[in-house]
Amino acid sequence: MNSSIPPSAAEYGGDEVSAIVLDPGYSTTRAGFAGEDTPKSLIPTSYGKYSLDGHEKLIFGDDVFVTPRPGLSVHNPMGKDGIVEDWDMAEKLWEYSFTSRLTGAKPGNPLQNGLNDISEGDMAAEMEGVESSEDRPLADSPFLMSEPGWNPAKAREKTIEIAMEKWGTPAFYLARNGVLAAFAAGKASALVVDVGASNISVTPVHDGMILKRGVQHSPLGGDYISSQIRALFKSNSPQPITITPHYLISSKTAVDAGQPPQAKYKTFPPEKAPDASYRNLLEERTLSEFKECVVQVWPGPNKLSALGPNGVSNEEVARGTPGRPFEFPDGYNQVFGADRYRVVESLFDAKAAIPDPDSAFPAPTQAQTVPELIKNALNGVDVDIRPHLLANVVVTGASSLLYGFTDRLNQELMQTYPGPRVRISAPGNTAERRFGSWIGGSILASLGTFHQMWISKKEYDEHGPNIVEKRCK
Amino acid sequence: MAAADVRDMLDLPAEGQPRPHKKQKVVEKRPEGITRELFALLGERAPPIAISENRYKGRPKWMSKLRVRPWRMTPFSNSARSDGLILNHWQRQPEVSKAPALEGPAMEVDGPKEEENTPQALGQESLFAKYNIKARVPRHYTDEEYNRHLKNDDWSRQETDYLVDLVEEYDLRWVVIADRYDFQPQPVDAEANTGALVPAKRVRTMEQMKGRYYFVSASMLALEHPPSEMSEAEFDLHEKMMKFDADRERARKELAALQLNRTADEVREESILLEELKRITASEQEFINDRRELYTRLEVPVSVGNTTMYQSSQGLSQLLQTLLQADKTKKRRSILGAEAGAAASPASQTPTSNAPTNARDSRAGTPSTVAAAAAAAAGGAAGGPTNKKAIAAAAAAANKEAQQATKTLTATEESRYGVQHHERLAPGVQFRSDRAQKLTQAKSNVQTQKLAGALAELEVPLRLVMPTERVCKGFEKLIHSVNLLLDARKVAEKVESEIRVLEASRDAREAKDKDKEKPVKTEQQDDQLPPESTDTAAAANGTTTSTAGGDKNSAGDADSKAVEAPSTSQKRSASVLSNGSDKSSKRQRK
Questions:
Q1: Has keyword DNA repair (chain A) (predicted)?
Q2: How many domains does chain B have?
Q3: Residues near A427 by Cβ (< 8 Å), separated by ≥ 6?
Q4: By residue range, what is the domain housing residue B476?
Q5: What is the pTM of this model?
Q6: How far is CA A137 from the centre of its chain?
Q7: Residues on chain A touching B83 (C-beta within 8 angstroms)
Q8: CA-to-CA distance for A292 and A403, rounded, in angstroms?
Q9: What is the pLDDT of residues B199-237, one digit of tens each?
Q10: Distance (Å, rounded) from C-alpha B131 to C-alpha B122?
Q11: Does the CB of A131 have a partner CB in chain B at under 8 Å?
């Protein structure tokens, strides 16, 4: 292929307008240019807040993990159900997500860049005039954002308001992340199972539109699994395991498995110590490492507590599998056997949840488990498309990367629906699974046929924020 | 400073030897138009070593002459949009450009900006505008039309409007429409005052929506064009929409839900049943194929020829001749296939459908088809002796089939239709009359004649007039008893002749004693002869003479004498027989 000849637009239907795609999640916020295959900018949705010399300072991006500043507290603008709670901070965070890597720093106003000395009075006068659309971070990029399927109308209107008025985007669109994940899998109709940090959501998508009555979500996401792991650590048999994040450890020596850790800890005086939320954030990082390395979903065919196909208890079989070692930041290490199956079993079987009275998560109900969510979602849509949806189950979200998750889901669906063909489409590529809805947005926003879908600034001015309800169906 | 000056200064000889040398080399300068390499090959010198350079092969030369066509961020608008949103995308500059390319960066910055907002640049139509298609929905009704044609107790005007708008908005995607359907009836003030009851939010099913919409849509279609004037497609659509049956649709969906929610056992059972069904249908096909093949084998080709020509004996013999001919050619059969064999017989115009069978076993098949055709044509006439086997096989097959077919006949029916069962069939075709005829042929000619005589006496024709089964049976019996009688008479005659010999010897002895008793004996024998035939008398005389002539003549001699006279008529032998029979009866009486 000759690189000097442009691909004809009809070949792939693409027509880039250098749009920016933002996919805000509870755990991370993804932003990047449409038409690329991974988001260029990936930042944690949590931000740090501390006060220095009486001024409140904010830390965005990965920097939040690095320095345990005195009084540093970590916050998340998103609510537990994936809906924005703190709009001011969400706006700042999102703005950071694309300005830090994508739009870059504009050549600043020469009056402001500090190289030109101007008397105070002049500067103020100039500022008024210069304040124009050129200053807006998104002045020359159409902007596509994703939202959960249950996003209330108020939140949607607020979003378009921010994008149009604060960021000055010429064109905006708000797409459901379920639809986008289906697009990323190359499907216009699909049943999207999104296992995120705070939520598991099941979204039936038909012809690129969600079926609202079928949308289901439950809080049994990655954070719930973390709480289950904590509960497991508390009831660990040789001794309860406490997670000490790296920032609290100055040195450690290797110990044998199961032996108490031998490490020197850092101590912070109370006035210099960061907030508890900071420690919590770093503990979560260790826990997600634990999830990646150790945790495994019982692959089926039956529940972990039930009997296997050959009459042997599944737990017995699980105990027979070789364990997986894990070393904590303080040097404590242990081999995890059948327990590593138990922490995620409650995603499929509510009764298998490890009880923990201290946990922020109430004990799950059976209706919150993944198979039940799918069942309810299917019952919410027309019976004619149910078999088609079952044949197009798209699994996305970083927590779905749990080892054996799709196998188990497949087993559960086959058991619940023995008749129709069940087919799960889950990309094996980690990035594609983590950024499924962003990739779908990237595809969508770079399509030539999407040009007519954008809500332009003019339309917004004409109809007000309510237009998002009419256009982004 | 020229070289000459230097030479002068150094006192060197002016323009010496080296010059001509150099000149020589210059002479070899290659002429125009020949490359150096080619020129080097011309002389006796060895060709120069080609030095190949590894060089990056860039774009071809002619391309470097082209001007670089820059890509520009170009604004464009999409005509599918009503608001004239201008977006930018990278686009290659068109080939022909009035401005010279290299004008410096300053120009480049300004250049596009100037064009940017001219309508010409914006006139660039987006390629994708053509994909902006909306579903065709019928014209919206007016108030009057609604009141006249579309009123419905179940659906208010507002709700109908809402539904029609929704359908248009979602392009008839009923799944989405049913999902998003959320009609909030706006309470009319007057109603609110009187009733004060908020109408309960009704849940509309997709079928209800479809039913209503199709009704509205079909009515609008019919209003636009009366059904009599509709085009075919329109009429079809109208019919389809008018015939929409919500109840049936609902029942179908219930069934679909049942089908979806089957248990694993049901699914397993169904799959087993399906498997079984598949097996059955597969083997059924096999069975049908087998049966068809069998039929094609068994089927006697239907003769389409005229059979009247074979009704006469002449025709039959002609057929026999042709069959013989065919068989002779068959003896040399190698390449002569089914067609040749079939063509040999004028009667066997075999249907072509039999050709494959014939071709497959040309040896066995062809004669049998020929013979079968012949047999069918002749209605059971005589087969040629050489072809007999084949004919018999065909006949046997036909017989067997007939037997199978008539298994259910009762005894009376069997007798009525002349059905018979054979333990074992002799090979070849036989005629019943032939068999009857054969019975009249004894081993010896004399015996045959005697039989014929006996039959003549009984006034039974030698060739049966009507050789039915029963007649043949009777004839057989008759022949059998005649044979018995003949045997008995033979024995009787023997005994009698012995007696005579003995008497003669006694007479001779007595004659020796007293010679006069002899004539009385001859008279006695003459009396016994029937008076009507003179021939018999003569024969009797012969016999008597012979017996009288030599007393050493035995009964066997008499027999041989009869052989010596084969031309003796039937009547005589018949009389002899009757004579014998009378005698035997007399003997029996004794």
A1: yes
A2: 3
A3: A184, A185, A396, A433, A436
A4: 431-515
A5: 0.63
A6: 24
A7: 456, 458-459, 462
A8: 8
A9: 556 788 889 899 999 988 888 888 888 878 788 888 888
A10: 19
A11: no
